[in-house]
Amino acid sequence: MSEHTSPPPARTRRRGQQEQLTRGRRPPWLRVRVQDTPDYRRIKQLIRGHSLHTVCEEAGCPNISECWGHGTATFLLMGDICTRSCGFCKIKTGRPDPLDPEEPRRVAETVQLMGLRHAVLTSVTRDDLPDGGASVFIETVQWIRKLVPGCTVEVLIPDFKGNWDALQRLMDIRPEVLNHNVETVPRLYRTVRPQAKYQRSLELLRRAKEMVPDGLTKSGVMVGLGEEWDELLEVMDDLRAQDVDMLTIGQYLQPSRFHLPIARYYTPEEFDKLKEEALARGFRWVESGPLVRSSYHAEQAIEHTKAT
């Protein structure tokens, strides 16, 4: 693996990526062990006791020990079965179960018991629902605000298949952070996100900012799927053109042999360089690192961004 912290010349980049195809064990900066602490067990029991799902578990997040150990979790709404089949995601694909009308209240009660100051809500993609599940996000945010006044809420949403009326209804309740991940570069969408559209995701982020100009918007990308350095910079430019405030950048990790292979591992130094590039483009907050995921350090991100 290259030790350079800056991108290689364009004429050698593709060859360099081929030379860095992954083999064998993960590099040391990606080896994480689950820490079975009292706080970890407490969060696990709360989630189980309220019959809820978290993306931490369903997506196999490598930071589950750290986050649960600090008393935080990202709630996964509308079940654990997704209507899409993204090549990178561990969440099950199939026909989802009917919505649970009590789920929004139970999520809010769990947020209350956890003592959260910032709650992160995401969901499986529900293309079977007319509004893509926007109403469930709305009801959950309303319950949290009822039971935990002062708790800020971040919603990490699917694209609602371009249902902008559904997006408007969600933005009308003014979540503190509207997060929607573009995930990868446009060239790889057919492989990585076959049922999604890059331009639709950009439009969602643009419209969200137009609907609530003083609200915070956020997006995220994975690296290591075969993208080129210049393509990542172009995605950053595209996101800033939509006035996106915050960005997360993390290493793609293959959930199983049935998922997309890892093209290569980025070094911590390369993640530092990507953060520099993003900040230079005007993002107000950037989390960039091998284990970074969409909601990593979410509370710190909103506190910093609101203070600047």
Q: Please give the count of helices.
A: 12
CATH architecture: Alpha-Beta Barrel
User: What are the low-pLDDT stretches, counting only 5+ consecutive residues below 50?
Assistant: 1-5, 10-21
Which structural class fits the helix and strand makeup?
A: alpha/beta
The CATH superfamily bears the name Aldolase class I
CATH class annotation: Alpha Beta
Helix percent reads: 25-40%
| Rounded Rg | 19 Å
Overview of the structural elements:
This protein is α/β, with parallel strands linked by helices and 308 residues long. The chain has one domain (32-307): TIM Barrel, CATH 3.20.20.70. Helices cover 39% and strands 14% of the residues. The chain has 12 helices and 10 strands. The chain has helices at residues 10-19, 38-49, 55-58, 64-69, 103-114, 134-147, 164-172, 189-192, 198-211, 229-241, 268-280, 298-307; strands at residues 53-54, 74-77, 81-82, 92-93, 118-123, 152-156, 177-179, 216-223, 246-251, 285-288. Strands 1-2-5-6-7-8-9-10 form an 8-stranded mixed sheet, with helices on both faces. Helix 5 (103-114) crosses helix 6, helix 6 (134-147) runs parallel beside helix 7 (164-172) and helix 7 packs parallel to helix 9 (198-211). The chain starts with 9 loop residues before the first helix and ends with a helix.
